[in-house]
Please model this.
Amino acid sequence: MLDRVIAEFEAQQEKEQDKAAWRIHEQRILEDLAFPLWMQCRECIEVGCKKHPKHLRFEVQPMMMAVVRSNRKVLSVEYHPNSHTITYEFGSIIRRYAIRIDDDRQAVIWDRVQDVFKSPEEMADDFLILLFT
Model:
C-alpha cells in the first residue's frame, strides 16, 4: 500500500515539474511570437475599417493599441506584452484574451469564455461586430 502511495506521489510531482517546465518554455516561445500575432490582429482590424469607411474609422495609435470609432461608439483594443494578452474595452465591457501556444507550437489567441483558439482575422471580426450591437 505504501509503495503504491509513494509511486502516485512521485508521478504527481513529475507531472507538476513537466507542467512547470512547459510554462517556462511557452513563455520563451511567446516572447518571439506574441507581438507579431498582435500586429496581425491589429492589421486585420485596420483592414476591416478600410473595407467599411462609411461605418468604421481606425484611429492611428501607438503600436500596442487599436481604436475604432463608429458613430458615437468607441472600441479600444490593447496588447499587453508583459502578460501576452489582448484586452478590449467597449463601453462598460472589458474582456481579456490570452495569447497561447497551440499543439503545433504556433501562437494563437485563446478565447477563455468559449474555450477556443481564434485567428487574428476572427478576432478582428469579433471586435468590429461589437460596434454594431
The mean pLDDT is 90. The two ends are 61 Å apart (CA to CA). The first strand starts at residue 57 and ends at 59.
